[in-house]
Structure formats: structure tokens, C-alpha cells
Amino acid sequence: MTDSARSVGVEEELMLVGHDGTPVPRARDVLGSAEPADGPLEHELMEEQLETATPPRSTLKEIATAIREGRAGAQAAADRHGARVAALATSPLAFDGTTVDKLRYLAARAEFGLTAREQLTSGCHVHVAVADDTEGVAVLDRIGPWLAPLLALSANSPYWMGVDSGYASFRSQVWSRWHTAGPTRRFGTPEAYHAAVEGLVATGTILDEGMVYFDARLSARYPTVEIRVADVCLSADTATLLAALARGLVETAARAADSPAPDVPVEVLRTALWRAGRSGLGGDLVDPRTWRPAPAHDVVGALVDHVREALVDLGDLDAVTELLGGLWSGGDAATRQRSWAAAAGGDLAAVARRAADATLE
């Protein structure tokens, strides 16, 4: 690994479930009794979930350890209130979401109606360090074509309100209800990026800058590009793989900052994301090299080839190859959830319980 490796931080939204697998509204209690040893834990929109956040880390081994520590700490805090944490991007069981009793969240519930009331969805956000906004925008302008394969790798939400959605990532469908969610156009300069954000806030249709939910954005809190496209990953190994590939994409894009950014229509990027959410790794994806359908294995291979030089320089290629091998052999998380349901005779509570087990494996 080079001495100048970009640091990475991973935020994971985790479901709080009871021992019967049903989402339970205990975030306030869990956070209220959390101890420093549990690590950083935060509210999300719903009382049925928590968010963990790793410290910035530079080696993939450190990143993997921090992800596991975050999950273990969240479970230690949940244990005090009879709950389990589950890395589920949507609940397999039907739920009545409970909005966190904070002014901003209550305002979102009042303003956005069913979209807010049904937002019990969990994502994984990867922060990758950039030198400044100029480098950050150069990265955003170049990574868009490769975000759909990241969604496919993470797909972990086949069920919605107690039924099979037919999607590998139905979270991506629910999340796309937000009017600022999704891919973005080329910006070219930090000034153009910030003007776009300010323009969205000025419309009065979002509460604030924090509701600019681009699939990848400049973080308002850290000197990072924040890649937000993925489902929360069932396995800590998959979350580690996602972090490695996200860093590889940022590094590759930053190195190409002096070359023209690809000019891909937003509607094509959006369609590629829809395909990734529908198929996961179980069917064709849209190949960013041709914008035509290709088997998921080939598209993911193209992603690794695209970032290979960066992975080699960072010392991550062997680990990425091994983690990908495990994912191909075990299947994506949506496939695993469906296989658990079949083995349990359609009992989706059993799926939630097994997901809670897998979260800490």
C-alpha cells in the first residue's frame, strides 16, 4: 500500500428487530443507554434503525475490523433493550414505521407523507477522502457509470411489506421516491456543483442541504466524496468489498481528472441503476463500456479491471479478488434471503432472524 492511501469511512444503517424478527422502535432507548465502548451510534429517520460509523481508516484490514466492531458495538447497545441489529436493507416483515421524535424528522414526515412514513430502508454510505472540492467534483463527474454495479453487489432487499418484491434491491425503488435521489449530471467545477445544491434548496421542496440525496455527493461534514448508492450489506465481508471498490473508483477517477469526463445521459444512468436493483448479481446488468446488457459477472469484472491499477497500488487487489470469490460462490444477499425463506417454508420472520445472525458473523 502506498503511504498516501486515501482514508475510508463506512456508515451502515442497521435495522432493530425483536427476537421474532419484527422491526422494533427502540432506537431512543438504545442510544440513550449506549456506552463509549459501543462506538459511534446515531439516529436515522426511524426508531427502528441505528447508524454506525467507522473512524477513517487507510488499510483494508483496518476497514474490515472497524466495520465488524461497529456492528458488534451496535448489538451490545441493542442487547440492553432486548433487540437485535440486522443488516437488512428492507424488513422482510410488514411494519408501521415510527418517526424519530426530532423536529427535522417530524417535519419531513409532515411534508413528505407516505414517502417519509415508509422510509424504513437501510443503506451503506462509503466516505473516501479527497484533497478538496475540485478533486471531489472531478471524481463525481467520472464515477457515475460504475455506481450501478456497486448497487448490484450490495443488493439485500428482496422483500417489502411481507411479500417478495421481485427485485434484488427494492430499497433502491423505495429510496428513489425522494426527489433528489439518484444519479447526477456532470458538474465540471465546484462552483457548478454548489450552485446545483443551492438551487435545489431554493426550490423549497426539500428541508435543507442534508436532503440532497445524490447517489454520490460531496460530504457536507467531511473532506470526502460520499458514495450512497448501496444497500446495507448483509455480510461484513461484502461491506469491506464495497469500501475497497469505492476507494478504487475514487482513486481511479482522481488520476483521470485531466482527461475528459464521460458524458452519459442521466436517464441512461438511472436505467442502469434500475436494472441493478432489479437483477442484483442474478441476471444481466447494463455494461458501462457499451451501455448494452451483459452478464453481471462480466460487468463486475469490468469494474475490477477499471480500478485494477488503483487496487494494485493500494495493495487491495488480492483481498478484493478473494472477497468477490466468496460473494460469487455464496450468492448475493437477496438470493440468500430467498433461499432462507424457501428453507423455512416461506416464514419471513426466520429470514429476519437469520439476517441478524449473519450481521455478526
TrEMBL record:
Q: Which reaction does it catalyse?
A: L-cysteine + L-glutamate + ATP = gamma-L-glutamyl-L-cysteine + ADP + phosphate + H(+)
Kindly give the InterPro entries that the UniProt entry links to this protein: GCL_type2/YbdK_subfam, GCS2, Gln_synth/guanido_kin_cat_dom, YbdK
> Might you give the EC number(s) for this enzyme?
6.3.2.2
Q: State a single Pfam family of this protein.
A: GCS2
Q: Which domain of life is it from?
A: Bacteria
Reply yes or no: does the keyword Ligase apply. yes
Which keywords annotate this record? Answer: ATP-binding, Ligase, Nucleotide-binding
**Stretches for region Disordered:** 17-38
GO MF terms, alphabetically ordered:
ligase activity
Family affiliation: Belongs to the glutamate--cysteine ligase type 2 family. YbdK subfamily.
Function text:
ATP-dependent carboxylate-amine ligase which exhibits weak glutamate--cysteine ligase activity.
Output this protein's name.
Putative glutamate--cysteine ligase 2
Organism expressing this protein natively: Promicromonospora umidemergens
